Amino acid sequence: MSAPTGRPQDGTPTLELREVDKSFGAVQVLHGVSMKVYPGQVTALVGDNGAGKSTLIKAIAGIHGIDAGEILFEGRPVSISGPRDAAALGIEVVYQDLALADNLDVVQNMFLGRERRNGLLLDEVSMEQAARETLSKLSVRTLKSVRQLVSSLSGGQRQTVAIAKAVLWESKLVVLDEPTAALGVAQTRQVLDLVRRLADTGHAVVFISHNMVDVFEVADRVAALYLGRMAADIPLAQVNRGQVVELITAGRSGDIGIAPTEAAAVEV
Predict the structure, then answer these.
(1) Of 109, 213, 127, 209, which is closest to residue 163 (Cα–Cα)?
(2) Could you tell me which residues are beta bridge partners of residue 252?
(3) In the chain, is it the N or the C terminus that has fewer CB atoms within a 10 Å radius of its CB?
(4) Is 125 a domain residue?
(5) Percent of the chain that is helix, strand, coil (3-state, to 5)
(6) Looking at the domain assignment, is residue 73 inside a domain?
(7) How far apart, in Å, are the Cα atoms of 40 and each of 53, 115, 221?
(8) Exposed/middle/buried for 60, CB within 10 Å: 0-12, 13-18, 19+?
(9) How much is the pTM?
């Protein structure tokens, strides 16, 4: 793995959403959502259950098409009609279920569906080398062997493999859905360190979490969704933990957030 190549160096966001709407039948889930995700930074996407986080991520991943608005990738308007389009741009999503096969080893999981071949045979040597290099670049030292079965790994190690798999494919944007959920203290520490290293290698990272301690530990920016609206998308240094909680629960904190008249209309 190497740092993402060919990306703008002028402060252009890797991903930008402009006034994105999404409805399912008569139910509008996303209302004019705008958001920026920058290379080399972790953007924490936070919001209560039902705020629209999953729908937003699936729109970025190409699983749900948007109804209105615009998606820009590295400053260029793009149409993401399916997961293949997202992958071609350099977008990789690590969902909570991790999508790992317990009966396969680390290398086989990292190349699952994208195996390298040498003629009719799998190129095991090349794949193992690439897996080792990727884990090394991310400073992963918690795996005894890349030939361990995933069934033998801890929760933190599984998360590590899933993240390494996402960055193996020259990704530019990596979306992590609750990566520390159900992990112990030591495993959470390992994963947070890995998330930080991922940004430090130049990737843009979206980090979805309900845990404010984790958010303030690892994020550079915070994007707070409130009932399908973006309450704030700002540098984390501009808010404290209490303000983020207020943005999540009320859509506003002091002078930050949804305008009072709009917030009142949303709550009706």
Answers:
(1) 109
(2) 257
(3) C
(4) no
(5) 35, 25, 40
(6) yes
(7) 22, 29, 11
(8) buried
(9) 0.88
What pLDDT, on the 0 to 100 scale, is given for residue 181? 87
List C-alpha distances in Å: 202 to 2, 107, 167, 178. Answer: 9, 24, 11, 21
Please give the residue range of the domain that contains residue 258. 15-98+169-267
* 256: in domain: yes
Q: How confident is the model at residue 4 (pLDDT cuts 50, 70, 90)?
A: low
- CATH of residue 24's domain is 3.40.50.300
Count of structural domains, the chain: 1
Helix 185-200 vs helix 155-167: crossing angle, to nearest 10:
10
Name the phi and psi angles at 93, rounded to 5: -120, 130
Query: Which residues pair with residue 91 across a beta bridge?
Result: 173
Round to whole Å and give the CA distance between 80 and 83.
8
CB count in 10 Å sphere of residue 263: 17
DSSP state of 252: E
Residue 1 predicted with pLDDT over 80: no
Look at residue 77 and tell me if it is in a domain.
yes
CA dihedral sign of residues 105, 130, 110, 205: positive
What confidence score (pLDDT) does residue 265 get? 56
Q: What 3-state DSSP class applies to 5?
A: coil
Beta bridge partners of 225: 47, 230
Residue pLDDT, tens place only, 101-132: 999 999 999 999 899 999 989 999 999 999 99
Residue 42 or 262, more confident: 42
What share of the chain in percent tops pLDDT 90? 79
Handedness of CA 234, 236, 237, 238 (dihedral sign): positive
- Residue 16 has phi, psi (to 5 degrees) of -135, 130
Pairing between strand 173-177 and 27-37? unpaired
Report how far residue 3's alpha carbon sits from residue 144's, in angstroms, rounded to the nearest whole number: 25
